[in-house]
Amino acid sequence: MEPRVAYLWLIPALPLLAAGVGCVAPRNGRRLAAGAAIAAMLGALVLSCFALHLALADPSAHLVYNFRWFDLGNGAVRLGLLLDPLNGLMCVMVSLVGLLIFIFSLGYMDADENFTRFFCFLSLFAAAMLCVVVANSLLLLFIGWELVGLASYLLIGFWFHRPAAAAAAKKAFITTRIGDLGFLLGLVWLYDTTGSLLLYDGGNGVLESHVLGDLATQVLAGGLAASTAIGLLIFCGAVGKSGQFPLHVWLPDAMEGPTPVSALIHAATMVAAGVFLMARIFPLAAADQGLAAAPVHVLTVVAGIGAVTALMGAAIAVAQHDLKRILAFSTVSQLGYMMLALGVGSWVAAIFHLLTHAFFKALLFLGAGSVIHAAHHEQDIRNLGGLRSPMRATYATFSVGMMALTGVPFVFSGFWSKEAILHAASEWNVSHLPLYAGLAGVVLTAFYMTRLLCEVFWGAPRSPAAAHAHESPAVMTVPLVVLAVGAVALGFLGTPAWPWLQSQLTGEAVPAHSLLEGGGLMALSIVLVATGLGAGWALYGRRLRATAGADDPLAAAAPRLFAFLGARMKLDELYAATVGRLNTFAAALAVILDRWVWGGAVGFLARFGEFTGSVNRGVDEGGLNAGFDSISERIRGAGRAYSRAQTGETHGYLRALAVAFVVLALLALLGGGQ
Amino acid sequence: MSPLQLCVAFSSVLFAVGLTGALARSNSILVLLGIELMLNAANLNFIAFWRYSPAPSPATGVIFVIFAIAVAAAETAVGLALVISIYRHQRNIRLQEATRLKG
Amino acid sequence: MTAVLALIALATIGTAAAAMTRRSLLHSVLLLTGSWVGVAAFYLWAGAEFAAFAQVLIYVGAISMALLFAVLLTRRSREDFAPGPASRGRALYAILAGAALAGVLLAAIARGSLAVAPSPVPTVTVRQLGGQLMGPHAASLLVVGVLLTVALIGAVVLAAGTGPGKPGDAP
């Protein structure tokens, strides 16, 4: 066993320490809180790099360090730390992106009076996320998972004096809780069946072959394997956290939080936790693949949900007007792509896309943050415009992020990771529907990103705020540049010609292919990207929006479709009409039951109690009290007598002690001696 | 008279002297000193019995004494602080006047 | 051997008795320090070098200093020492109690079977002592450490009073 793995706990511990410092720092201790947070993140980054180096020494090994948490009955609850290339890469990604966003926040939150609290929460989030990443026990992972949810709640509601932010925080928390309930049930079931929640434990972990074999052969009602049920329950958690259909509704609202939070939590890291979780437990999710008789496979469900989400998110993003909300739906869509890749069996492609997406989406969000900061918190793209010349650095980096997201070929990382996903989808032998959904999503992505870029940066300013915009300070633009470099360079780690990332993640050598392998598909997707870009340019770039009030060209062409998409496919209304109404009905029913049935029973019992009480009182007052009164009077008298002995004179006490000692010694000497 | 008897007698007399002092004097510092003397007398017993025990275990008596000395140091520190506190309140340190906590 | 012991005992008891009877507090403390030196000499005589060392360090070094400071800090109360009838009665009573205690204890010692064969002086090295302290007695050592810390803090808090802001607070 590698002893250095035992020190992995330091990675989440450092930001946790910083959170503690931020928590006790005085309100104006800005430098202290921010300095501690950034130093801790830097430390975590350095440690993560060491960890990654250690993991890459033998990519196929799972280095673990398990320890007992507490004893329970006959067994013991054990937790553990795990290190393999997947973990290592995630650690480096989370701490690097986190560090950049922390630095960006220095500039963005500069004017906020709760600066200290903000960094405390950010550090807490980073600690929880890193805890999720390094856990070797699903229990520890779940603890981190919930902490991540808590930090997300706190940060979305950071500006809690805005009703919208408070509501969004509540919505995010409750919606993800629905998924987490499934996750928890899955964990309980898993523990009940296997007696362990450790992922790798020298042959006894839940991801190791013979436990998986047992799980897959246990058949429940209807031919469903136990592993399928557990996998689907755990997937519920991933659906909630990663904003997958149908629990995606919280993610766009979460944009009420400060923009660095959106970048860190709701784009780069936390929402990717669901994808990470599914990749982590991929052996469990894939355990039922061999069962031909099973009515449903976990991975099929994952692929289906992912495809629906990818397409839906992209479609809704087309018709949004809020800068951050467009990016939020884009995130939903990209997470759908990742889930799609997982579902079609290529978790490596999912992780590849996760890593590249973390960089370019963080870049886009921070760029949006820079725009919002410059334009005095104006987020409506109809009111922006013309920011290209005053904000050159932001414009350049934002464009890099936009091209990476749309998948402009060959240079940008998003292209390679998206190709990997589409390639995996085309080889899936169950159905080709996910592939078609993915291809359609490519067109829509290119289209809405072109629209965003044209509306925000081109043309003339359409509001006073946009007209007075100026470039953000260096503390904000430097992270943008670093992220932009990452958004380009990261793609070259996983091209078909040099599949370094793939071979490191799987632990076995992946043969290199010619760049043009699967060239037909690649050519098709390039054409689709070009179509999307062209359509976007034709509609929004050729004739730039003149005034803030002008109609959207698409809305003019298809008003009802646009309104439908703009209202987010009416899903919130649908939930309000179904789940919400059901809830109201159940609540009304509960009120009736409470008031009449249970209330009546309780009322009867109360009357009965009252009656016996009055009988009791009569007995008490007549018979018992007199006796007790005289006893307590006597006790009081005794107390008065004793209190006379308490003179407060130390000498008296000492004297009494001496006399008592002499008497006792005499007694022992004369009586008990022999 | 065996040496052990002499030792124990020594400690008894020292104890009695300490007790007498603590009882006789009204100055709280001297009362504290008397108590210290009694503690020392008790420590003497530990060492004496350790010295003459049939098979002295490596260091038990000494360890007892070390702990007792540590506790005595703590006691003196708090005791003296109390004396200063009493002095601040009543401008003298006569123990028989510090009777405000009586029942 | 016994003669040395008797000498040590006489010196210790003598200084202690003198300390308890002196009028001047300062003299009392100094005499008592001599008595503590006597106790340390007894430890040396019994072969407990480390205990003697600790006795000198803590009592002769530290506690006597603290006492001296306390005496000097509470100097103004010297005029209270005028012996009155009450204090004479108390002294009589105290001497009675002390004599009774000593008598009982000495009678017990004389009657008891404390006659032991003369044995060589046991030796205990500091290494052994350290092993014992860090081994079987580690828990007590920790507790004593905590106790000392608490006593230190408590003493500071008690002696610190109400703070410089309200000098007239003390009645």
Overall mean confidence score, pLDDT of chain A: 82
> What Rg of chain A is obtained from the alpha carbons, in whole angstroms?
32 Å
Count of helix runs of chain A = 26
Q: What is the rounded Rg of chain C?
A: 21 Å
Proportion of residues in helical segments of chain C: over 70%
End-to-end C-alpha gap of chain C: 57 Å
Pattern of helices and strands of chain C = HHHHHH
The spatial strand order of the largest sheet of chain A comes to 1-2
**Tell me, what's the shape of chain C?**
globular
The total of beta strands of chain C comes to 0
Kindly state the percentage of residues in helix of chain A. over 70%
Net shape of chain A:
globular
- Total DSSP helices of chain C: 6
| Unreliable segments of 5+ consecutive residues of chain C | 165-171
Number of strands of chain A: 2
Largest interface, C-beta closer than 8 angstroms, per-chain residues: B-C, 73 and 88 residues
Q: What structural class is derived from the secondary structure elements of chain A?
A: mainly alpha
- Secondary-structure content class of chain C: mainly alpha
Largest sheet of chain A: 2 strands, antiparallel
Note the topology.
The complex is a heterotrimer of chains A (674), B (103) and C (171).
Chain A: H1 10-24, H2 30-57, E1 63-72, E2 75-83, H3 85-108, H4 115-134, H5 138-156, H6 163-194, H7 209-217, H8 226-241, H9 250-253, H10 259-268, H11 270-280, H12 282-285, H13 298-318, H14 323-343, H15 347-374, H16 392-406, H17 413-426, H18 433-457, H19 464-467, H20 474-489, H21 500-506, H22 519-541, H23 553-557, H24 559-566, H25 571-645, H26 650-672
Antiparallel strand pairs in A: 1-2
Helix pairs in contact in A: 1-2, 1-4, 2-3, 2-4, 3-4, 3-10, 3-15, 3-20, 4-5, 5-6, 6-8, 8-11, 10-15, 11-14, 11-15, 13-14, 13-18, 14-15, 14-17, 14-18, 15-16, 15-17, 15-20, 16-18, 16-20, 18-22
Chain B: H1 3-24, H2 28-52, H3 60-90
Helix pairs in contact in B: 1-2, 2-3
Chain C: H1 2-21, H2 25-46, H3 49-73, H4 85-111, H5 126-134, H6 138-160
Helix pairs in contact in C: 1-2, 2-3
